[in-house]
Amino acid sequence: MEVTIVGAGLVGCLLACYLARRGHHVTLYERRPDPRERGPDRGRSINLAISQRGIDALRRLGLDGKVLHAALPMAGRMMHAPDGALTFQPYSADRSQAINSIGRADLNRELLEAASAQPGVEVRFGCRLTGLDERTGRLRFESGEEAAAGVVIGADGAHSAVRARLQQLPGVSFSQEYLDYGYKELSIPAGNGEFVMDPGALHIWPRGRSMMIALPNPDRSFTCTLFWPHDTLAALDTPQRIRAYFAEHYPDAFGLMPDLVADYRGNPVGHLVTMRCSPWHVRAGDAVVGLVGDAAHAIVPFYGQGANCGFEDCVELDRCLDEAGDDFPRALELFERRKADTDVIARLALDNFVEMRDKVGSRLFLAGKRVEHA
Ligand code: FAD
C-alpha cells in the first residue's frame, strides 16, 4: 500500500518504521530541511523524559538500544528548596526503573536514520503541506509540488495542517486549551568538564505558582526549563531584574548559570496547550486520512508523556492493522478506541503541573524542611 505521512518528527519517523516492516511504501513529507545537515535550534532544544511506554515502542523494532545509548537515566526527582536544601524522591524502590533524558533533536535524528534505512521509505524535506483534499488524498505543498495517496496520516504536530483540514469538515470536533503559562529554556553548563549537579535525577525547583526543572545532557550540561505565568516572564525586562529574581528564588541555580541573562533574553517563550480532536480519521471518496501523535492529542509536558504516547500510538495502530488485515480505513476506525487513553493522559498531565510546581514542594515541608514558595 502507498502511504503518505505528513511530518518527519518523532512519531512520523517511528510510524514509518512500523509501516515499512509491514511491507507498505511510505513517503514522509517534512516541512523543515534535513535536521542531520544543520545544528540545533537555540533555546528550543527540549529534553524529553522517555519512559517505559516509549521504550516499549522502540524495543519492538529493535531501536531501544541505539536510542537509549545517548540517554541519561534519571531514577527520581531532586527537589530544590528555596534555601538550597535538596531532597531526592525516587520514582521507584527499584533504582533500575528510571526515566531517560534525551534531547528531542538527537532522538529525531536517530529515528530519521532508522526510517530512511528502511526499504520502501522515502523522506522528502522542505515540503510544507498547505492543502489537502480528503476525498482524493491529493496533497499540495508550499513549493507548488503536488502528490496523492490513498492513505494520508498527519503526524505533523500540535499545529497540524492535516488536522486543520479535517477540522473544516462537518462531524469533526476540535478544542484547544492554552495555559496562562509559557516555558523558556536556560542552561547550566558543565564545570571543569563535569556535571555540577546530580545527573541521575530530574531536578525541580517548585515555587508554588511556578517552577523550574533541569534535565542532564551527555555533554555534562543541564537544560533548564522555566514554567512560569506569562506575566512573570514578561516582568523580568532588565538584566538587573533577571539577576535579582533568580538570586532570590533560585539561589543555588543562580550561581551555576553564567549565561543566565543572555539565555533569558535570547531564548523564546513557548506556549503550553492541550488539543483534542474527534474523530481522528475521515474516510471520504477513495482516500482515508488519519491523525497520530501531537496532531491527534497534544498535551502539556508535565507528565513527560507526549512523545511516549505518540510512540504508543504507533504500537496501537500496528495492532489495529493486524486486526484489520492491513485494511487502513478499518484499522484507523479501530484506532479511535485509543482516544479514551489519551484523554486520560491529557488530564493527568494538567494535574501533574500542580503536583510538580506545588505539592512536591509541600512534601519537603512535611519532611521537616523549610519551604517558601515564591
Ligand atoms: P512533532 O515532534 O511536533 O513533529 C511534527 C513534525 O511535523 C515536525 O518535524 C514538523 O516540522 C513537521 N510539520 C509540521 N507542520 C508540517 C506541515 N505543514 N508540512 C510538513 N511537515 C510539517 N514528551 C515526552 O514524552 N516526554 C517529555 O519529557 C516531554 N517534554 C516536553 C517538554 C516540552 C517543553 C515540550 C514542549 C514538549 C515535551 N514533550 C515531552 C512532548 C513531545 O515533544 C511531543 O509530544 C512530541 O514531540 C510529539 O511528536 P510528534 O511527532 O507528534 O510531533
Automatic annotation (TrEMBL):
Its cofactor is FAD. Catalyzes the hydroxylation of L-kynurenine (L-Kyn) to form 3-hydroxy-L-kynurenine (L-3OHKyn). Required for synthesis of quinolinic acid. The keyword Amino-acid biosynthesis does not apply. It comes from the Bacteria. It catalyses: L-kynurenine + NADPH + O2 + H(+) = 3-hydroxy-L-kynurenine + NADP(+) + H2O. SUPFAM superfamilies: FAD/NAD(P)-binding domain. It holds the Pfam family FAD_binding_3. HAMAP family: Kynurenine_monooxygenase. Keywords: FAD, Flavoprotein, Monooxygenase, NADP, Oxidoreductase, Pyridine nucleotide biosynthesis. Pathway: Cofactor biosynthesis; NAD(+) biosynthesis; quinolinate from L-kynurenine: step 1/3. GO terms for biological process: anthranilate metabolic process; kynurenine metabolic process; L-tryptophan catabolic process; pyridine nucleotide biosynthetic process; quinolinate biosynthetic process. GO terms for molecular function: FAD binding; kynurenine 3-monooxygenase activity. Belongs to the aromatic-ring hydroxylase family. KMO subfamily. Its EC number is 1.14.13.9. It is an enzyme of class 1 (oxidoreductase). This is Kynurenine 3-monooxygenase. Residues 2-321 form the FAD-binding domain.
